[in-house]
Write a structure and sequence with these properties.
The structure is a single chain. By secondary structure, the protein is of the alpha+beta class. The chain contains 6 helices and 7 strands; from the N terminus they run ααββαβββαααββ. Strands 1, 2, 3, 4, 5, 6 and 7 form a 7-stranded mixed β-sheet that branches. β4 and β5 form a beta hairpin. α5 runs antiparallel to α6. The longest helix is centred in the C-terminal third of the chain and has 21 residues. It is globular, with a radius of gyration of 17 Å.
């Protein structure tokens, strides 16, 4: 019988990966996810759209990007509220994203993301401009806050118990609107 300690250990491994950012360990880190997993990032609003990643390959790409460009992620592992029912567990906790100097290195990446907004033919031209402008202003605002600024977030996840142990089925990062 599994208990919350086992789920918390998986959450700790997730946190450890985001702390170490060791790209040589990325493939091993991906073993924390079920095959049909999804990761919903802070900018997501539509399934399959911006920052809504489905499947291990897609999730691997965003984690590699996070480890390269995102600031220091701290997840409240000890404070996580964990519930288990059979072979499914869910959790919620808070965390912070501390801005690092890597933000300047990320600007070419951000420009490419802005291009994706501008090329999204599902949006009207005005909506494309608004999305790209908002995204760009948000990145500049983050930079303005300066190195060391901590942005709060909420972290929720659903895990499933497989033969190999607990794996993430769904992960979501959410930041408050400011």
């Amino acid at each position: 019988m599994s208990n919350t300690k086992d789920v918390r250990a998986v959450l700790q491994k997730f946190q450890d990966g985001y702390i170490s950012r060791d790209m040589s360990q990325l493939d091993e880190f991906m073993n924390l996810f079920a095959k049909e997993a999804e990761l919903i990032g802070i900018g997501a609003s539509v399934r399959g759209g911006n920052e809504w990643f489905e499947g291990v390959d897609s999730i691997r790409e965003i984690i590699e990007s996070d480890w390269t460009y995102w600031g220091e992620v701290t997840i409240g592992v000890e404070g996580a509220r964990i519930t288990i029912k059979g072979d499914v567990a869910w959790l919620s906790t808070s965390g912070t994203l501390a801005q690092t100097s890597v933000v300047d290195e990320a600007f070419p990446f951000y420009v490419n993301q802005m291009k994706e907004f501008l090329e999204n033919e599902e949006l009207t031209p005005a909506a494309r401009m608004m999305e790209a402008t908002h995204f760009g202003m948000r990145r500049l605002w983050e930079r303005h806050k300066g190195e060391g600024h901590k942005w709060p977030f909420v972290f929720t996840a659903v895990l499933v118990r497989e033969e190999e142990g607990w794996r993430f089925h769904q992960v979501q990062f959410a930041m408050p609107v400011d």
